[in-house]
C-alpha cells in the first residue's frame, strides 16, 4: 500500500509532501516459506526496479516456458 500526504501552508505558500509505503511479501517454495514486511516513510527521490520471471506451464500435451520482464523508473 502506498500513500502520499500533502499539506498546504497558506502563510509560506508551500506544500509539504510525505510518502508512506507498506509492503508485505510472502514467498513459498517446495521446501521453504518466507515472509518479509517493509515500511518506508519519507520522500522518494529516485527509484528503479527491474525484474524477470520465468515459469513452466503444460497445455495441450506440451510444456512451454514463459517469461515476463519489466522495468520501472520513477
The order of strands across the largest sheet is 1-2-3
Report the portion of residues in β strands: over 45%
Largest sheet: 3 strands, antiparallel
Uncertain regions spanning at least 5 consecutive residues: none
The arrangement of helices and strands along the chain is EEEEE
> Total domains, how many?
1
**First-residue to last-residue Cα separation:** 17 Å
What does this entry look like structurally?
This protein is mainly β and 74 residues long. The chain has one domain (2-73). Helix content is 0%, strand content 77%. It is elongated. The model has no long low-confidence stretch (mean pLDDT 82).
Short structural description:
With 74 residues, this protein is mostly beta strands. 0% of the residues lie in helices and 77% in strands. A hairpin with a 4-residue loop joins strand 1 (2-9) and strand 2.
